[in-house]
């Protein structure tokens, strides 16, 4: 069994010592170089943060904090330490939230997950993550570059052209969402295209159901998954052991009781908090809003870091649809655009291997031309296409729910 580097097989005690030593340096650096970090950590002495117990005393940072701070102090809310000449790219995620990318090699740390998924120097990676505004395409491209892989920047859509490129270029690896790989393979079958070069894949952005994994395996494609976000980069990744996700070496992960920041008992489901050891964008105890739990023991693959069970739901109503986060605030923004809508609820379901979102609207007045206008607002605000259905006044439950995720996975 080969590993990306020696960090993956460190003794657990050594890893804790190394990471908390790095964290103390980072806390001191952040207080000195990022105004917002100075305010957040005003009562914290970096030298006192020596273990997970002391880390749990630090304040939690949430996406809503990023949105508010960036609105008050654009573009990054005073949370970055980068000088302008060291800023490589800027991305936008729903909220909006702006994410920096420095010129540091493999800034998002995806190379480790891509290596675990079987990608090696000399491979050509067909990268079907979006290159438009959001960082996913760049996250995987910089990881591939660190491995010595070439990249075809396919992005999303234009499946016939993507299949044509696969026929011509014969890529050995795929990066993208699992649902889009499934769409591409359907187009391969429809066109009768001679595409058999794909051997490895790393997917993210949505769940990888067992049915899809089996279909990929039947086509000779070994597909693993990883957990990454635009704010933090890589958090955890699957290995050939296929027993949970191994936490990345560049972050410290805590599982806490939602809304409290207090660690849960081992094995208990809670919210994922991540402290990234990234001096350029030092997010400390950042709440992902995702639920997971720690898996007991060490991975059979030999990697010694903590394992988590993967995505077990959301701690709030924010949900991920086709690789994009959708927030309750965005549903409210759609409603504000149309005075004919009294209340609305976004229902997320799954048809086959495809996510479907439907905005249920309680309306007042004539709806003959309203549906198409509301659908266009959904597309503009959420960056995703969705269906619109009207219901009678007061038909939606009065339970405060704005996003109802009804998806289930086999």
Keywords:
single chain, 410 residues, alpha/beta, globular, 20 strands
User: Regions with pLDDT < 50 over 5+ consecutive residues?
Assistant: none
Shape: globular
Distance between the termini: 30 Å
Q: Which value, in Å, is the CA radius of gyration?
A: 22 Å
The total count of helices amounts to 11
State mean pLDDT (0 to 100 scale).
Answer: 92
> Helix/strand/pairing class, anyone?
alpha/beta
Descriptive notes:
The protein is α/β, with parallel strands linked by helices and 410 residues long. It has eleven helices and 20 strands. The chain has helices at residues 12-33, 35-40, 52-55, 63-72, 111-116, 136-147, 159-169, 178-191, 210-218, 328-336, 370-382, and strands at 87-93, 97-102, 124-127, 150-153, 173-176, 200-203, 222-229, 233-237, 245-247, 251-256, 270-276, 286-292, 294-295, 307-308, 319-321, 324-326, 341-351, 354-363, 387-391, 403-405. The chain has a nine-stranded mixed β-sheet, sandwiched between helices. A four-stranded mixed β-sheet has the order 19-18-17-20. A three-stranded antiparallel β-sheet has the order 10-11-12, with no helix packed on it.
